[in-house]
């Protein structure tokens, strides 16, 4: 018999019980979470980790996201598509309700104002536009158009009654001023607790709160002045072209083609 010591040396060492693999490659799993109490979000943590990996890892190493971070990144990539689909759906619903393509355009012009207010609120507080903020932007599509619907609906009724477009727009803005302010500011004040949230999950609630607060505040203030102006512009264009965007399609009596 040949002793093992003649062909090999045996020494006790310390090593892992097993080596995990991910997509065939040997991996090391790194777990972490952002310091939400210091005001950092998950998206900021992802950016910081990507910068560290780009500087510290060589060409022979790589990294992949998994778990909730991977899902968050995938959802973030779909956010523009979802926002666009929401805009199209709201526009089609308004077009079906008013049986017109022009009136929904006037109403949808309030959405950019709301988005601008949301972005300014995030910039003022130094917050990133994370997944929860993107959810708030989708919410603003319906919330911002609500005020414009009230003005356009009443202006349309006043125009049908024979008033001048300017008088109809101004009259509608005056008639609906109080309901618009009451509903808008009740909702704006309702998201203040989200902005002041603390504890676990506070970052997500704060993101939604600041986005909705800034968007609704901007949309409410500017809608009262901009929507009547656009209503007058579109009505003047309709008068020049001879197309009435408020006229509903009338049914044709095929049994009496002559109309007698």
Main beta-sheet annotation: 2 strands, antiparallel
Q: Ranges with pLDDT <50 over ≥5 residues? A: 248-254
Helix content percent band = 55-70%
How many extended strands? 2
Shape: elongated
Overall average pLDDT: 79
End-to-end gap: 121 Å
CATH homologous superfamily placement of the domain at 78-241: Multidrug efflux transporter AcrB transmembrane domain
- Given this structure, which CATH class of the domain at 78-241 is correct? Mainly Alpha
Give the ordered list of helices and strands: EEHHHHHHHHH
Amount of beta strand: under 5%
Q: Looking at CATH, which topology of the domain at 78-241 would you report?
A: Multidrug efflux transporter AcrB transmembrane fold
Per CATH, which architecture of the domain at 78-241? Up-down Bundle
Output the number of helix runs: 9
C-alpha Rg, in Å? 29 Å
The neighbouring-strand order within the major sheet is 1-2
**Category by helix and strand content:** mainly alpha
Features:
Multidrug efflux transporter AcrB transmembrane fold, 260 residues, mainly alpha, 2 strands
Please tell me about this protein's structure.
It is a single chain. The protein has 260 residues and is mostly helical. The chain has a domain at 78-241: Multidrug efflux transporter AcrB transmembrane domain (Multidrug efflux transporter AcrB transmembrane fold, Up-down Bundle). Helix content is 65%, strand content 2%. It contains 9 helices and 2 strands; from the N terminus they run ββααααααααα. The chain has helices at 42-56, 67-98, 102-108, 110-125, 131-160, 165-175, 177-190, 192-195, 202-241, and strands spanning 21-22, 25-26. Strands 1-2 form a two-stranded antiparallel sheet. Strand 1 and strand 2 (25-26) form a beta hairpin. Helix 4 packs antiparallel against helix 5. The longest helix is centred in the last third of the chain and has 40 residues, at 202-241. It is elongated. The N and C termini lie far apart (121 Å).
